[in-house]
Amino acid sequence: MKVFRAQEAFRILVIAVMMACLASAATDAVSRLVSGFDPTPLVALAFLVCLEGIAGDRLARQLPEATARLRLRLAEWVVILLLLRLVLSLAQGFEAFALAITGWLARPQSLVDGGLLAAGLLLLVVWALGINMSRTLEALDPEADAPPPRDSAAYYAWLTRPRAAQRASGWQQLGGLFLGGGVLVLFFSGAARLDVQAVLSLRNPAIAGIVGNALLYFVLGFTLLAQGHYAMLRSRWERGEVEVARSLARRWIVLGLAFALGVAVAVLLLPTRPSLALFRAVFDAVWWALYYAMGFVLVGFALLGYLFSLLGRLLGSPGGQGSESPSFTMPPPPPETPAQRVAWWEAIQGFVLWAIIVAVLVYALIRFVRERRGLWSELAGRGGPLGWLAGVIVALWRWLGRVGARVGASWRALASRPPAQGRTGEGGARLRWWRPRTLREQVRLFYLLGLQETGRAGWPRKAADTPYEYARRVQLNLDQGQQELGALTEAFVQARFGRREFGPAEVGPLRVALRRLRSICRRIAGLGRPSGAADDIEVKGENDG
Amino acid sequence: MALHAIAMPDVDGGGTVSGLVGFWIVLLFLAAVLRIDFFFYLLYVSIGMVTLGRWWAQRGARAIAYQRHYPPRVFWGERPLVRLDIRNKGYLPVLWLHVHDSLPIALRSPNFFQQALSLLPRETVSLSYQLDCHQRGYYSLGPLACEAGDLLGTTRVSLTYPSADTLVVYPKIIPLAELGLPSRTLYGSLPSKQRIFEDPTRVVGVRDYTPGDSLRHVAWKTSAVLGRLQVKRYQPAIALDTTIFVDLDKKDYSQMRLWVGTELAIVVAASVASWLVERRQAAGLGTNGHDPLAGQGEDAPASPATLPPRKGRDALMRILDLLARVEMADGPDFPTHLQRETSHLAWGSTLVVITGRVRDELFAALARLRRSGFNVVLVSADPSGAFQAVRQRASSIGVPSYEVWEEADLERWGLAARGPA
């Protein structure tokens, strides 16, 4: 059996590079403490140790006996530690290395020191994490061995083996390993850059710059997750005997990497400093609005005072002779300090950042509440303060759900205005709620407005009425406007049920007809219909039918 | 080709998103407290990977279109190649796409075709598969269902394209040698032994004039050469305007041979129609079976309209189309249907009546048709053990009858018919 399959080479390399990034982040932090320490050889060793760990793990699994596996592991680690010892000594220069050799010969116990232990621990982490990632990916992959013959009972057992559940847990595990490693990378990256005292005093300055090893770790990590997803899909497809295009695996790698790098480049444009500029801008705007509103109020008062004084003079009040016209003074404008001045781009950046932060928090809260739906109900059922709190959360959730549904329904109603007939395609679906009405739609609208007017005049349309039935029924009761209603009805039927396209020359007379019908109906509505007219209509309608 | 996109949450990938959300919150907190710009940057990267990935998957999936290329009509036994062109109309690549084309079980086993692929921007991928057309019918190909998703498995987009593609598989046609169908229609193209049907356009020779011969038939040139009056001899010919009536009423077939018998009836009808058209005769078709295209409303006709006898390949194609589509049905009653549908047919034309078991009502209908001047031939595709009695009874009303138990009988029938003729 082969140790590696060809399609696994990319994934194993990605894991090894990720582990090297982790080691690089850790050695960066160590470099701050140990002056003159060159981390490069250790990072390279971490890369190699990871590769060796994955290969050794696969070899060990092929060995049938536990003792043989243990022997393999021991030999592996002796070699790793020996190499580590050499690398650590060489990293301090050749002279130091020569001295160290002399020391080791004199005192073999000096081979082991604090540096070796710390570096060994780091390599152990890298080794174990790399092996686990590789194993998880391997479990997600389709099985390498061929299925048993189809006509055998073993095939049925093979077909119905519980692989899907294992894959789901493997997928979770891969995510956990990646994020766990990511937390370590962030910890080491932060430790390499932060001043602990300044952080504790909460007055640490903002630290700018991109951390290359951490960025590479995350970009490759997402690519690895994508590979894990591909492995799962591939397993599912092979299980369903789906033929897979040859180019898919290669494209998955290329597109995955390109996408991860593209996102990494694109987000460089986003702000990284939480700014209060937006709030300042809003406060300034509100302040100025209040200032001008107050100014208007004061001007109003001044005018009133002036009018009263004039009135007083006219009435000849004793105090009016000597009184002077009232004067007012505007309050001082809001102070404009240079520190408060907000640049527009700063405001936009602040808005974007705060929008992202709010979106993350809202999304997290929604998921948090939704995923614990059963728990809230259970807690609410138990009673007590915790139950009350859970009840509040449940009630709030339901209220938010109702509000969301209402808003959604309104939005859908707004957005689902039917597209014009004969105008289909992708463009029709886009922002169709504020596009101008077509001539056909105008014709339909005229008729509906006409219906509104006739309804107000006392002849509402019944649900079962066809346009012609309704028109005939109303025309019998109208002294004027029969032709207008007939023309509107005829045009409506053609626009609604036919394929006819209307020209502007045809729509103009219909608009005039609607105006005339409206004035007639309003005149009738203003005069009031004779009593019993509705009954007459009913009788006539029935007779017609 | 309509396109529907329904975004569905991926159960498998949900766990990773949950883990990522926790990671985002920790990262956000650390970034805000420690004020490390890079942590914000990483937050953006991870959020961007998920949200842009979802957007990419959904946007990419909506730009997928397909076209199915195939011959819309095939003959029995052919293995047509169906080519499925999957096209990415958009400017974003489609990372992965699982294509699943549903097919009728009668045409392919398993009854689907599926493949996983990826599409670059504006790329078209051609997939192909073969169908095994060993069962006549009117089939719908599809619907085509596609599934796409993002890199991290956080979303899946399912698309279903309602199918409008149909395939007609013509019934099996067995080449017949000679049928010897009777006819009384004049001026046709088939030679006949009955001299009453002489065709003046087919001169086969001359003979001496006898008193009573029409002067219009005198061959003047030959008479001048021979020195005595000669009269042209014409070849007798008939036109075999034939309408085939296929009984697909379930109650006219035994339960055991319900499917085999009806299918055999259709094979007989197709073979006879093909034989007639090959000989440049007019052929028509009537049936009381169910035509899926005849209409689906309550007021839709119960059976397809009878195709009047016509000549040429087009007529044959129309007949085969109908024979490919029709299915057995519960009624209408065949003798009644026969009586109704023959009312507009020309006098003297031939009716080939293909049925299962011959009932008394059918005999009565055949006798009426015979009296009306039609030449009737009876074919039973589900003959009972006492077919001899049926044959004698049919013979007594002047209707030749044949039994067809299997397809080989049809060939024998043709040969047998040629012998006595």
Structure characterization notes:
The complex is a heterodimer of chains A (545) and B (421). With 545 residues, chain A is mainly alpha-helical. In chain A, 74% of the residues lie in helices and 0% in strands. Chain A has 21 helices and one strand. Chain A has helices at residues 9-33, 40-62, 66-90, 94-106, 114-140, 153-159, 163-193, 196-200, 212-239, 247-266, 277-315, 318-322, 344-371, 373-382, 384-415, 426-429, 439-456, 467-475, 482-497, 504-527, 533-544, and one strand at 243-244. The longest helix of chain A is centred in the middle third of the chain and has 39 residues, at 277-315. Chain A is extended. By secondary structure, chain B is an alpha/beta fold. Chain B has helices spanning 11-34, 37-62, 220-226, 258-278, 313-325, 334-341, 360-371, 387-396, 407-418, and strands spanning 4-9, 64-69, 73-74, 81-88, 94-102, 112-119, 124-130, 137-141, 144-149, 155-161, 165-169, 185-191, 198-208, 230-239, 242-246, 283-287, 307-310, 350-355, 375-380, 401-403. In chain B, the strands form five sheets. A six-stranded mixed β-sheet of chain B has the order 17-16-15-18-19-20, sandwiched between helices. A five-stranded antiparallel β-sheet of chain B has the order 1-10-9-5-6. Chain B has a three-stranded antiparallel β-sheet with strand order 2-4-7. In chain B, strand 18, helix 7 and strand 19 form a beta-alpha-beta unit. In chain B, helix 4 packs antiparallel against helix 5 and helix 6 packs parallel to helix 7. Mean pLDDT of chain B is 82; it is low at 1-15 and 415-421. Chains A and B meet through helix 7, helix 9, strand 1, helix 10 and helix 13 of A and helix 1, helix 2, strand 5 and strand 6 of B.
